[in-house]
Amino acid sequence: MVKIKQVSNPLARFSVEPGVHHHHREAQQFVGGKVPLGLKRKGLRVLVTGGAGFVGSHLVDRLLARGDSVIVVDNLFTGRKENVLHHAGNPRFEMIRHDVVEPILLEVDHIYHLACPASPVHYKHNPVKTIKTNVVGTLNMLGLAKRVGARFLLTSTSEVYGDPLQHPQVETYWGNVNPIGVRSCYDEGKRTAETLTMDYHRSANLEVRIARIFNTYGPRMCIDDGRVVSNFVAQALRKEPLTVYGDGKQTRSFQYVSDLVEGLMKLMEGEHVGPFNLGNPGEFTMLELAKVVQDTIDPNAKIEFRPNTADDPHKRKPDISRAKELLGWEPKIPLHKGLPLMVQDFRDRIFGDRKPDAAAGDN
Ligand code: NAD
Ligand code: UDP
């Protein structure tokens, strides 16, 4: 049980332990009758940076559904307005087109910091900008959290483990990252973002949370972002060959987006800083993934081998014991159940009103 102690200013934050800010829902609504009428709030005020992107937009859906007020800050580099358009009339929703590399001041209780291109094609497109987003952008959002006393959650990545020498990866593993490679703008950028997050926690007493997200898929992924699941699904629907890079024996572990969103919210609401691996331990080679896509969309889809990209991690699988034990979280949706949910969305977006030609099948 968390004890809430009121500090002298009734409008000020509530603390659990000296120096530690706490903003539980009950605390927010317990305003001691001293807040001027009309200023009482229900729910939390939540900032989601990168909220017009794939993961962010699903998180926004969940936060609004439970009654929070949500501000999305997004520069729409890889995000799309369409992802959040369905909230346009909601008075608890606001979207600001803004680049996190520039400072911004907003009054919020929680910050989910997602802003950063996530697919290798996007983050390698302008690597210096990727570093700036991860370092300057994260600094700006941590500065904001400190100034307004908000709790801050960083969406880090399994890429901090690089091409891992430990399998599966546990949070205590420090990783094997090439600091000068083409992926390092992202990997080292996220590692620095983790460092900044922990330094703000230690030196400024900021309440922080760190999630290390493993490969996630689902509706609203960018269709042409080059990630393996979006590529294979779009290719199978368009009757193009599935492009397997290298020998296809490298592995990834694929998590459905609703499982991730659940994990992120549990992490934010819980008491533990982390880092926590959030991923589905079901591990697949790229050839096995291609087979699942064939079974789901088109058993006749061809496979075409292509040269692999530099520094591609050979294997990846999360050890999620820590999240299971401390957050009471584990993913529920296996690949063969999650994939069809994404396929319908891709079908609608690729073909629009137009029905895919009969040959594309409708299974
Ligand atoms: P995404 O590209 O769909 O979303 C990222 C969002 O951030 C986009 O809406 C983009 O426009 C926005 N953005 C990028 N740079 C910005 C900037 N400088 N200022 C403001 N907005 C900016 O990617 P996603 O898959 O939704 O990933 C969300 C977060 O989760 C990212 O931080 C990513 O690193 C992390 N993550 C995702 C995965 C995954 O498999 N999806 C895996 C590991 C980590
Ligand atoms: N990959 C593939 N075909 C594609 C795209 C990617 O075989 O069309 C492979 C890629 O080489 C990597 C894995 O799929 O081994 C995952 O790549 P992705 O870009 O989705 O994410 P990553 O985990 O590398 O960030």
UniProtKB/TrEMBL annotation:
Its EC number is 4.1.1.35. It is found in: Golgi apparatus, Golgi stack membrane. Pfam families: GDP_Man_Dehyd. Its main location: Golgi. GO terms for molecular function: NAD+ binding; UDP-glucuronate decarboxylase activity. One of its GO terms (biological process) is D-xylose metabolic process. Keywords: Decarboxylase, Golgi apparatus, Lyase, Membrane, NAD, Signal-anchor, Transmembrane, Transmembrane helix. Pathway: Nucleotide-sugar biosynthesis; UDP-alpha-D-xylose biosynthesis; UDP-alpha-D-xylose from UDP-alpha-D-glucuronate: step 1/1. GO terms for cellular component: Golgi cisterna membrane. It is a single-pass type II membrane protein. CDD domains: UGD_SDR_e. Residues 47-340 form the NAD(P)-binding domain. Its cofactor is NAD(+). The keyword Transmembrane applies. Gene3D superfamilies: NAD(P)-binding Rossmann-like Domain. It is an enzyme of class 4 (lyase). Catalyzes the NAD-dependent decarboxylation of UDP-glucuronic acid to UDP-xylose. Necessary for the biosynthesis of the core tetrasaccharide in glycosaminoglycan biosynthesis. Belongs to the NAD(P)-dependent epimerase/dehydratase family. UDP-glucuronic acid decarboxylase subfamily. PANTHER family: UDP-GLUCURONIC ACID DECARBOXYLASE 1 (PTHR43078:SF6), UDP-GLUCURONIC ACID DECARBOXYLASE-RELATED (PTHR43078). This is UDP-glucuronate decarboxylase. It comes from Oryza brachyantha. The lineage of its organism: Eukaryota, Viridiplantae, Streptophyta, Embryophyta, Tracheophyta.
